[in-house]
Amino acid sequence: MRNRIVIVGGGTGGTILANLLAAKLHREIVNNKVELLMISDSPFHYYKPAFMYVAFNAFFKQELTRSQQSLLRPEIKFIVDKAERFDLSQRVIHCHSGKQYPYDFLVFATGCVPWPDRIDGLAQAGDHFYQYQAARQLAQKLATIEKGRIFITVSFPETPNVPHQCGIAPIETTLMLDDYLRRRGVRKAVEIVYTYPSVSQLLRNCLFLQRPTAEALPGIFAARDIRHQRGFTLSRVDAQQKIAYSAEGEEQPFDILMATPPIRAVEAVCNTGLSEGNTGEGWLPTDHQTLQVYGQQGVYVIGDTVDLPVSKAGGSCHNQAPVIADNIVAELRLGQTVSHYDGKVQAIAQMGLQAGMPLVYDYRHDVLPTPSTKVGGMLRNGFNRGLYWATVRGLI
Ligand SMILES: Cc1cc2nc3c(=O)[nH]c(=O)nc-3n(C[C@H](O)[C@H](O)[C@H](O)COP(=O)(O)OP(=O)(O)OC[C@H]3O[C@@H](n4cnc5c(N)ncnc54)[C@H](O)[C@@H]3O)c2cc1C
């Protein structure tokens, strides 16, 4: 009997995983013992980290887009459709087209979406760089501001110990903003204020979600005349008056509110009812080691949809994909899982427009910040402009 593996979502995690599985199961697929399907709601693949460069007019849509089919090995059947309902008891996916796809193995790889509506007034008055159109709108404001106050906020999910998307992105964009306004010659007339909420995962009153980096930040900000403030948990925005209110009882004016907004899983995932929290965010309960969804046979989750304490980042997908691939192959061949995820995430942080800082951490070790360098910046540029596409093809 033929086994069908269905990966839903053709972003970073789904694509790396599909290509790894196709390589490992090549013989079974060719001999019609295994069928490998990817269902995604878009024919295109977007390199999402480039959205933050879009906000500084340094990247445009065609540069960060590829046809999804072109990134997949030929053993993979690619279907453009939207998963609307997961019937986990019958093991069937119901799609927008009306088609139904039964599965033996299912991988959720549907990412997450910004959810500014969770905070009153944020969708009307805030800007962000986590989607292309939003980043273009912010780019227009940043390219024309002559004086005033740019106020930076970070909102965490309400599910305990789950981070926002790409932990380092608010720092990267704050430093890029400083460089960008200096280049434009308006930096002296524009105040930059970086804030962080009182609760950031397990930490309290810090400037970042891990202590060693949080402790390095005041010096980095002081050298650039960036103001910073702990304990600002965005709770409401007055779009008319342009005032941000915090849960701690403060109010702060802004000309541009550059926010890391709340996020949630996509609707069909939220509707599975599998999430353990009652926050409406929908993160799937994930076995920290095997990356299986708790309580479900042959069901895995990768990337931004997990409820793990690690960064929702491409650098997480890169390390999770081989674990899931090994476990699915082992379940098929041996009837049991064999591989464990150690929480590893790696990336090269963009520290300003030119410099970069390689970073790595896992469940047990925090990032140890090092001085950012131009070589780091070149590495990051190389990843943005080429290595990413080799990574999702499963080549590196
Ligand atoms: C501004 C920004 C900066 C970032 N910076 C970095 C960085 O520097 N380093 C880093 O490692 N990571 C970074 N990230 C995070 C990284 O992009 C994500 O963590 C990564 O893309 C997550 O991969 P994923 O496969 O979980 O989801 P995604 O890549 O978002 O893919 C989800 C896929 O699912 C599809 N889909 C959604 N719903 C459905 C449905 N119902 N049916 C079918 N298909 C569906 C989507 O179309 C998409 O193809 C950044 C992200 C942003 C936005």
From TrEMBL:
Domain FAD/NAD(P)-binding, by residue range, is 4-142
Organism superkingdom: Bacteria
Q: Which Pfam families match?
A: Pyr_redox_2
**InterPro entries in alphabetical order:** FAD/NAD-bd_sf (IPR036188), FAD/NAD-binding_dom (IPR023753), SQRD (IPR052541)
Name of the protein in question: NAD(P)/FAD-dependent oxidoreductase
Q: Which organism is it from?
A: Serratia proteamaculans
Lineage of the organism: Bacteria, Pseudomonadati, Pseudomonadota, Gammaproteobacteria, Enterobacterales
